[in-house]
């Protein structure tokens, strides 16, 4: 029962990219099948299982066996580990002109699909857009968490929609991102440099890589405050070791993200400028928080981000040399 597609035209697709989510996926499906104000368009749900080893598939199939809704629920298995591969599979398999990307720990409010569809219809130049993402915390976040909340995909940027300007180098995360399917197919990299966090690698920002490519191609990226999503954050994701590892991975991803925005001839000149600026920021941060960095978790995370940024070009040059040697 992997695919329950109908022959009807589909206007909008919602894809849940998931890994080992037998205890989470049901909550997302419950929220989606309770969506309001979707009668004026056709839509579907696709679950992309990113090589799970638990009962995720069985849980989805149980929902399929008792699915009595006008919108289809489909299941796809993506064996290549990494969120970038799962999202690419979702976009390829989607029947809608628009694809909304959910993670298995993000819960949309009851009007999320309708608000996403409406925004897509009224913004003809948009290639992707995201909404508000609120934290649903298992425990109280640490002090000064707001300084690093964005790195856990907490996005609360006001009540007015706006376009992300390329020169500001700020883009929405993949959680709740809605993309124009054809724009993704035309411009997302076939072989992404960043594939997302895996059990072996904590590199992040694979979503920013795709958004940057869309922006480079001339598509607008927007913030839609009427879309509300709730990101479930368990206790372990607020622990020091996890946060430091997360920030290091985001820092290490800086080099390819920066390079994708530059013309090839500018990249060799930009690298030392970026690196020296990162060094300046790192020294300034170390001096500013020298007495509190051990106890101030936000400051420690910011330092780890800077250290990762400093190491980023060397990390990817070494990876490139390793690949050349092995080939």
General description of the model:
With 327 residues, this protein is of the alpha/beta class. It folds into two domains: 12-238, Spore Coat Polysaccharide Biosynthesis Protein SpsA, Chain A, CATH 3.90.550; 244-326. It contains ten helices and nine strands. It has helices spanning 25-32, 56-65, 83-93, 112-121, 181-187, 206-216, 240-252, 254-260, 267-288, 297-326, and strands spanning 12-18, 43-49, 72-77, 98-103, 106-108, 126-137, 162-163, 177-180, 220-233. α1 (25-32) links the parallel β1 (12-18) and β2. α7 (240-252) packs across α10 and α9 packs antiparallel against α10 (297-326).
Task: Map the helices and strands.
Elements: E1 12-18, H1 25-32, E2 43-49, H2 56-65, E3 72-77, H3 83-93, E4 98-103, E5 106-108, H4 112-121, E6 126-137, E7 162-163, E8 177-180, H5 181-187, H6 206-216, E9 220-233, H7 240-252, H8 254-260, H9 267-288, H10 297-326
Parallel strand pairs: 1-2, 1-4, 2-3, 6-9
Antiparallel strand pairs: 4-8, 5-9, 6-8, 7-9
């Amino acid at each position: 029962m992997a695919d329950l597609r109908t022959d009807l035209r589909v206007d909008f697709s919602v894809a849940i990219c998931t890994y080992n989510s037998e205890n989470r996926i049901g909550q997302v499906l419950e929220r989606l099948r309770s969506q309001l104000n979707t009668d004026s368009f056709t839509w579907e749900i696709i679950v992309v299982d990113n090589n799970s080893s638990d009962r995720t598939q069985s849980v989805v199939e149980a929902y399929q066996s008792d699915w009595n809704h006008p919108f289809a629920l489909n299941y796809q298995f993506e064996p290549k580990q990494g969120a970038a591969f799962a999202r690419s599979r979702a976009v390829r398999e989607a029947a809608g002109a628009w694809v909304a990307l959910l993670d298995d720990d993000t819960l949309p409010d009851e009007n999320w699909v309708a608000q996403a569809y409406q925004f897509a219809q009224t913004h003809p130049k948009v290639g992707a857009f995201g909404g508000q993402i609120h934290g649903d915390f298992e425990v109280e976040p640490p002090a000064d968490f707001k300084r690093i909340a964005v790195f856990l995909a907490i996005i609360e940027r006001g009540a007015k929609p706006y376009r992300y300007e390329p020169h500001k180098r700020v883009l929405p995360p993949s959680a709740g991102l809605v993309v124009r399917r054809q724009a993704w197919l035309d411009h997302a990299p076939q072989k992404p440099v960043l594939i997302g966090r895996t059990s072996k690698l904590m590199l992040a920002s694979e979503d920013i890589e795709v958004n940057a490519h869309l922006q480079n191609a001339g598509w607008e990226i927007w913030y839609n405050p009427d879309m509300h999503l709730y990101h479930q954050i368990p206790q372990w994701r607020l622990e020091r070791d996890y946060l430091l590892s997360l920030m290091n991975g985001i820092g290490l991803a800086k080099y390819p993200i920066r390079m994708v925005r530059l013309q090839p001839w500018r990249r060799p000149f930009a690298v030392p400028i970026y690196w020296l600026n990162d060094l300046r920021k790192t020294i300034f941060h170390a001096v500013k928080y020298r007495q509190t960095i051990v106890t101030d978790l936000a400051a420690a995370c910011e330092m780890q981000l800077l250290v990762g940024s400093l190491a980023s070009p060397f990390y990817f040059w070494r990876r490139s040399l390793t690949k050349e040697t092995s080939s």
